[in-house]
């Protein structure tokens, strides 16, 4: 048996949440790529998230260069009020790109956003679902208001909306799921639904 030192083993790595333009900007600011750790990992792909409307132009230029990556686009529920008509047009262009495989953090944030903005969040979700996302994974951001830790009402409303637009075979991932066992059971009719939570 041949012994190999662990530092010589190269492991394939897949990064599931890359904010590429933020990383590029950070490297440009520091001017030193050597400050980033070398982990003995060969980066073989990942999911690049383009989430800031002011960078959607950059996203359209980057996508053709990202061969080993899936692409997710989003406007975080906290930022819906900042989306301009021009930003929406660029978002539609991104949705039309065949390399875009996910709509990331689509949803409602009752916790961080004032109640006056809630209708705007719902209108945005309806508009995105109306574009047609059946071939994409919907990564949902459902954050209930204070005093409703499991978000039963929010989850129920969102499921009702998804039934109208998507159907039960839609690929869905609930990001930072905060519900309870009752909520998990209620999502079961959506056969391609998974959830993740913060550790």
From TrEMBL:
Record-stated family: Belongs to the metallo-dependent hydrolases superfamily. TatD-type hydrolase family.
Q: Which GO terms describe its molecular function?
A: hydrolase activity, acting on ester bonds
Q: What is the protein name stated in its UniProt record?
A: Uncharacterized protein
- In terms of superkingdom, the source organism counts as Eukaryota
Q: Which Pfam families match?
A: TatD_DNase
